[in-house]
């Protein structure tokens, strides 16, 4: 075999590894079944909402929580008004929440705000059985608290992640595509990971914990992707994250390119940083313990975002075409697996028609993201807590 041929084969094999991971995860996701308790005990739940300059949005979120089908004497809403210079605290109080105002401009961030509350105000939440953390701009499903309570009523469950979705997929092709992506990353990947490794991942929104867990840890991770960091911390300590696809919270996604670019840069830039910092520690833990959960966590973290993965499939496919013969079938398999992966998630989450149609715009979306990936590779990512523009509120 010539040196050029060896190079092409190596490129094909490298591209085939993430493809195989997606295929296995997709198949596994079809075997996921939500754990159910013998009895839902209606736990006392603290609903914790970290907020930074959310204004009227936090009031609407609190009102949505209060509409949940759950005994009113079994939950309390706590809002952390973190470094706010607007009327967030007033809106939260007027809506019926207990508000904790924090001012620390040198130590800003969602993780820092959560840690401050959990470590300094334990007397206020100690009477709860569980604490669920949601963003300040979400709409919880009417059964959200019931589902959280049901999951944490199972004796073996101490941490659960719900489904974090999109509430405006019909507002444009961008939010519809984000809905499709959330169906993949916030459902299929969690369901598949739980089957393959016995644990899911925290997503930062719609997650819940037995109160003693947060009394023990506080919120020890303070990066932009503090939820993923905490997931890995729990994994190292042997704590399983369960997944409940029926504990649903949804958020508005932006429609304008400038707003979407800022949002995606923060999300994916933070993930790239975590890949750099955690890849070797996870591999060392796997080699030291032989526990396959660490290898799976590394693989799940290391697999690039779908847009970038599709871009990486292009040179692998070209290599297969140049080698011709049976190699072409391997190149074709990359794309068949991606299609199977995407469509399976939409089927499992019963995606609306607008989300299915938006998949036709996926090539445009991928091209739009190329500059974002380049910026993340060559630039520095901000660490501050930046409020994403809510266009419906902005336009009212």
From TrEMBL:
CDD domains: EpsO_like. The keyword Ribosomal protein does not apply. It is found in: Membrane. The chain crosses the membrane at residues 6-32, 294-314, 320-343, 355-374. SUPFAM superfamilies: Nucleotide-diphospho-sugar transferases. One of its GO terms (molecular function) is glycosyltransferase activity. InterPro entries: Glycosyltr_2/OpgH_subfam, Nucleotide-diphossugar_trans. GO terms for cellular component: membrane. Its main location: membrane. Keywords: Glycosyltransferase, Membrane, Transferase, Transmembrane, Transmembrane helix. It is a multi-pass membrane protein. This is Glycosyl transferase, group 2 family protein. It comes from Chlorobium luteolum (strain DSM 273 / BCRC 81028 / 2530) (Pelodictyon luteolum). The lineage of its organism: Bacteria, Pseudomonadati, Chlorobiota, Chlorobiia, Chlorobiales.
């Amino acid at each position: 075999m010539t040196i050029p041929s060896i190079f092409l084969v190596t490129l094909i094999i490298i591209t085939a590894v993430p493809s195989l991971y997606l295929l296995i995860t997709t198949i596994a996701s079809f075997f996921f079944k939500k754990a159910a308790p013998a009895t839902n005990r209606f736990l006392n739940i603290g609903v914790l909402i970290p907020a930074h300059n959310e204004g009227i949005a936090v009031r609407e979120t609190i009102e949505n929580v209060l509409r949940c089908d759950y005994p009113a004497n079994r939950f309390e809403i706590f809002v952390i008004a973190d470094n706010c210079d607007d009327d967030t605290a007033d809106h939260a109080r007027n809506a019926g929440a207990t508000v904790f105002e924090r001012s620390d401009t040198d130590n800003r961030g969602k993780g820092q705000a959560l840690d401050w509350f959990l470590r300094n105000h334990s007397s206020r939440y100690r009477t709860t059985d569980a604490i669920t953390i949601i963003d300040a701009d979400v709409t919880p499903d009417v059964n959200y608290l019931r589902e959280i309570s049901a999951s944490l009523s199972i004796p073996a469950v101490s941490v659960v992640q719900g489904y974090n979705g999109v509430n405006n997929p019909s507002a444009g092709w961008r939010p519809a595509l984000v809905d499709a992506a959330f169906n993949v990353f916030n459902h299929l990947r969690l369901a598949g990971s739980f089957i393959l490794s016995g644990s899911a991942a925290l997503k930062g929104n719609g997650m819940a914990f037995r109160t003693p867990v947060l009394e023990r840890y506080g919120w020890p991770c303070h990066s932009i992707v503090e939820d993923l960091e905490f997931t890995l911390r729990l994994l190292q300590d042997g704590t399983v994250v369960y997944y409940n696809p029926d504990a649903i919270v949804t958020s508005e996604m932006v429609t304008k390119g400038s707003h979407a670019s800022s949002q995606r840069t923060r999300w994916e830039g933070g993930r790239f940083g975590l890949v750099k910092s955690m890849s070797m520690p996870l591999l060392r833990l796997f080699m030291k313990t032989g526990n396959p959960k660490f290898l799976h966590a590394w693989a799940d973290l290391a697999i690039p975002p779908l847009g970038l993965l599709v871009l990486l499939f292009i040179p692998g496919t070209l290599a297969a075409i140049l080698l011709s013969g049976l190699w072409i079938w391997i190149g074709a398999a990359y794309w068949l697996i991606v299609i199977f992966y995407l469509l399976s998630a939409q089927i499992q989450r019963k995606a609306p028609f607008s989300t299915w149609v938006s998949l036709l715009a996926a090539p445009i979306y991928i091209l739009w993201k190329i500059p974002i990936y380049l910026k993340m590779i060559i630039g520095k990512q901000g660490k501050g807590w930046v409020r994403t523009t809510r266009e419906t509120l902005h336009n009212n």
